[in-house]
Amino acid sequence: SNGGSSNGSSKDNKWWLILIPGIGLGKIILFSGHMTDGPNRPEPRFPAWLEPQVRTAIRSALQDWQVGPGDTGICGAARGGDIIFAEQCLALGARVTLYLPLPVAAFLEASVRLPDELDSDWEARFFGLLDDCPAEGPEADDGAHPFVANNARMLAEARKAAGGDDPYALILWDGRDPDGKGGTAEIAEATEGWRHRVVIDP
Q1: Could you give the CA distance from residue 191 to residue 167 in angstroms, rounded to a whole number?
Q2: Alpha-carbon distance 157 to 124, whole Å?
Q3: pTM confidence score
Q4: How far is CA 163 from CA 22, 69, 74, in A?
Q5: Which of 38, 110, 166, 189 has its CA 20 to 30 A from that of 14?
């Protein structure tokens, strides 16, 4: 080793990581997907009772890609698809970075919390992920729609993190036009040509 100092050897190890292709950030998996339905949704899209089925489908897509330690998931943190995806990545040993389109309190209200009488655990799971994963808050407000801007940011980060490799895209989407701006349909469209892309229809 480098004069026997532990510092030298850990530096050497880092250089080895850079020299061995395929080690480093590993696979980059971008996720976008529907939230579970709120109480006022006129037509069901992702009702709560579908969660176990969706969780199994997300996990098996990740396992097919052999996602594990050294790989990184990129997603939002809304109830439903985002939280399930992040939990499954962590369970397989991958890292996850969360991207929040709004400050935490506003995001909880918009995308996580359900009325108390529905007795859901999404809020606790959201805070559990915030404890376990780095989270990027919203960028400075430049007048752009926050969810549209967040989609664009996640796409850009996935491409950047993947370097010369293709990022992977996992999308929980019913194939329909979006309800509003900044939804899953935008990511579905933007990733259409990606080599590694799985769409799960809830």
Answers
A1: 9
A2: 27
A3: 0.87
A4: 11, 18, 15
A5: 166
Tokens of 45: 């899209």
Which residue bears the tokens 């696979």?
27
Nearest Cα residue to 122 out of 138, 135, 109: 109
> Which tens digits make up the pLDDT trace of 147-180?
999 999 999 999 999 987 889 999 999 999 887 8
Helices (H), 65-93: 81-91
- DSSP letter string over 91-147? HTT-EEEEE-SS-HHHHIIIII---GGG---HHHHHHHHHHHS-EE-PPP--SS-HH
Rounded Cα distance, 16 and 4, in Å: 18
In terms of C-beta density within 10 A (0-12 exposed, 13-18 middle, 19 or more buried), how is residue 156 classed? exposed
Q: Which of 180, 56, 49, 173 is nearest to 118 (CA)?
A: 49
HSE-CB for 148 with a 13 A CA cutoff: 9
**202 exposure class (CB count in 10 Å sphere: 0-12, 13-18, 19+):** buried
